[in-house]
Amino acid sequence: MNISRYATLATATLLLACQADKAPEAPAAAAPATVATIVGTDEAWASEAIYFVLTDRFVDGDPANNFEDQGREFGDGRWHSFNRHFDGPEGRSANVGYMGGDFKGLLNHAQFIKDMGFTAIWMTPIIDNPDAAFNGGDPVGYDQWGDGGKTGFHGYWGVNFYQLDEHLPSADLDYRQLNATLENQYNLKTVLDIVGNHGSPSYTAPEQISNFGKLFDQGGQLVADHQNLHPEQLDDANPLHDFFNRKPDVAQLSDFNETNPAVVDYLVGSYLQWIEQGADAIRIDTIKHVPHHFWKTVSDRIRAVHPDFFMFGESWNYDAAFIAEHTQPENGGVSVLDFPLQQAMFAMFGKAQAPYTQALDALHLNDGIYHNVYELVTFYDNHDVQRLDANDAGFIDANNFLFTVRGIPQVYYGSEMGFERGMKEHQGSRNYYGEANIAKAQQHAIYKQLTRIANLRKTTPALQRGVQVNLDFTDNTATFLRVYQTPALQQTALVLLNKGDLPAQFTIDELLNQGQWRAAFSDQSHAVSQSLTTTVAPHDVAVFLFDGPVNNAALLEKLNH
C-alpha cells in the first residue's frame, strides 16, 4: 500500500475504485457456507461511548440543593464549601468549592449528550462528602496542587458511602429516578464511580472540623474516625481506627485497611446498593493503590449478584504491562483506562503534533499484554490529567481517531467545544460548564465533527468491536481495517485518517475485500476489485464499509495469526 499527498481537493472524494487498467468489475467471491468468527470482543460495553461529567461542574439544575452557607459555622467562616474561587494570570480563574451542578442539571441536558452520539454517562462519585473545606494539608491555589482549602465537590472524599451527597439530588429526583429516566427516555446508561482506597482528608488540620476523617454506615452510625491523627499514631486498641492503614498514601486522605473484612463488607455493600438503584457499570478510582486480591474479592462478589458486570479502573500509569495486570481474571478481571494510548494521543493531537506512528506501540494489538485490548476505555484527557492542549483541528483529529480505533471511547465534558483546553486541575480543567456553554457548544466545529463520527460508530458494529488490522501509519495519516464477522453479521470498515493541513491521497492496494464498498457518510456504493484510491480533506476522516464475509485470502490469513 502506498500513501501520497497533494493539495487539490478539500473534501473526501473517491477517485478510483477499480484496477489500474479499468477492467470490468470483478464479482465478489462467493460467500462460504460458514464463516469464521472474527471479533475483537463480545463485551456488551464495547458498543458504548462514554461522556464523563464532573457532576458538580456540569449544570446547576436545582439551586435549592446548593447549600451556599454550608461550613460557615466553623471558626471564622473561612471553611465554607460553596464557591471557593481563586484567580490566575491573564483573567483566568479556578474554583475548589461546590458550584451547583446536580442530577437535575444533568437530566435536563441528557438530550444534548445523546445527540452527540454518546450512549452512557460516567458521573463522579455520588456519595456524601465533607460539609466544609479542608482546614489542613498544603494550601491549594491556581496552578498549585494541594488539598488545603479544597472541598469534596468532586465526590472522592467519601464520609458515608451509602448516602447521596446532599448537593446532587432534588426532592423529586434521587439516584434511582435519575437512572430510570436516563434509560427509559434517553436510552443512556450510567457509570458508577467508586473508591476503595480512601475516604476524606483526615489529618494535619489544626483541629478536626465537620465530618473530615469520619465514616458512617447505612444507618448513619459512626463506624470509623481518624481523629486527625497521623496514620502512624492510630491505636490498635481503638475500634474507631480499625478501618484504616497505619501508613500514609495519597495526600492526607484516610487510607482504608483492605485486609479488614469489615472494610470489605462496608465497601462492597455500598457498591451493590447503588448498582441496585440502576448503575450499569463501574469505574474504579485509584485502583493501583489497593492490592489485586481486594479487587478480585470485590469483582467476584459483585458478579455473583450481577453476572458479567462491566468494570474499569483508573491505574494512572503509562506502563502497559503494569496496568494490564488489573485486566487478568486472577486479579479481578476489570478493564482499565488506557493511559498509554492517552499519552500517545496527547502527543499526536496536541501542540507537539507527534506523528501517527506514536500510536503503534501504544495500541498493543498483537502482544497479548492485556486480557482483551478491545475492552480498554480510551480517552485523550479527563479530570486528573491536563486537558488536551490543541486547537480546534487537533480536537477534531483526536475524536476521529478515538471513535474509530480499538477500545471504548470516553470524552470529558466540554471537550466538544475545547473547554478550558490545555488547563490542569487547579488551573480550571474542572471549571463550571453551564447552560450558556452547552448552547455555545452546539454551534462549535468540534461538536459538529464529534457528533458526525460518534454517531457513525454508534451504528457501525465493525467500529465498536471489530478486530483492528493496521495498514499504514505516517506523520499525518493513518490507515487501518476493523473486521467484525459472526454467522449473523459480517462487516469490515476501512478507516482513513488525515490530521495534516493539506488533503491526503490514499491508495490501498492490499487486504481489501472484493465487491461493493460504501462510503459511510454518504452511502455511495463503490466497486472494488484490487485497490481503492481516495482523497481525504485536511483534519478529516473517511470510512468505507464492506457488508459481507471477508473474501480476501491474505486478510484472512493475517487474521488467523
UniProtKB/TrEMBL annotation:
Xref: Gene3D superfamilies: Glycosidases, Golgi alpha-mannosidase II
Assigned EC number: 2.4.1.19
InterPro entries with a match to the protein in the record: GH, GH13_cat_dom, Glyco_hydro_b
Cofactor section: Ca(2+)
GO MF entries: cyclomaltodextrin glucanotransferase activity; metal ion binding
EC class: transferase
Domain Glycosyl hydrolase family 13 catalytic residues, every copy: 52-457
Keywords of this entry: Glycosyltransferase, Metal-binding, Signal, Transferase
Coiled-coil ranges per UniProt: none
Transmembrane spans: none
Identification of the protein by name: Cyclomaltodextrin glucanotransferase
